[in-house]
Amino acid sequence: MSDDDLPEGVRAPEDDEQFAEVVEMLGANRIKVRCADGQERTARIPGRMRKRDWIREGDLVLISPWDWQEEKADVEYRYDNRDAEQLREGGYVAEGV
């Protein structure tokens, strides 16, 4: 997916990133996400996002799966509600993600 395909001003996923929806807050800066590939993963919220970007259940995020442990990932970006709705309405994010 290129930047030209997405609505203007919306961050596009890079090669190793994918869309995911937050399913459950696990505590200790960890969340459970349902990914675009259909898999559920435990994702880690990095220190640079902990206080600046509040993440809640139902939020759309970009995650980067770990190379060495497929069931885990890092959160790279959180979309605000307006951008998430644009992505869902435009068909960039599948239903249930």
Q: What would CATH call the class?
A: Mainly Beta
Round the mean pLDDT to the nearest integer and report it. 86
At CATH level 2, the architecture is: Beta Barrel
Q: Assess the beta-strand content as a share of residues.
A: 35-45%
- Whole-Å distance between the termini? 17 Å
The count of strands amounts to 5
- Provide the domain count: 1
Shape: globular
Biggest sheet, strands in spatial order? 1-2-3-5-4
Low-confidence stretches: none
Structure annotation, total helices: 2
Task: Calculate Rg over CA atoms.
Answer: 13 Å
Describe this structure in words.
The structure is a single chain. The chain has helices at residues 47-50, 81-89; strands at residues 18-27, 30-35, 40-44, 60-65, 72-78. Helix content is 13%, strand content 35%. The mean pLDDT is 86. A hairpin with a 2-residue loop joins strand 1 (18-27) and strand 2. Strands 1-2-3-5-4 form a five-stranded mixed beta barrel. InterPro entries: NA-bd_OB-fold, RNA-binding_domain_S1_IF1, TIF_eIF-1A, TIF_eIF-1A_CS.
Short description:
This protein is mainly beta and about 100 residues long. It contains two helices and five strands; from the N terminus they run E-E-E-H-E-E-H. Belongs to the eIF-1A family.
Identify the notable features of this structure and list them briefly.
5 strands, TIF_eIF-1A, OB fold (Dihydrolipoamide Acetyltransferase, E2P), 97 residues, 5-stranded mixed barrel, mainly beta, globular, RNA-binding_domain_S1_IF1
What's the arrangement of secondary structure elements?
Layout: E1 18-27, E2 30-35, E3 40-44, H1 47-50, E4 60-65, E5 72-78, H2 81-89
Parallel strand pairs: 3-5
Antiparallel strand pairs: 1-2, 1-4, 2-3, 4-5
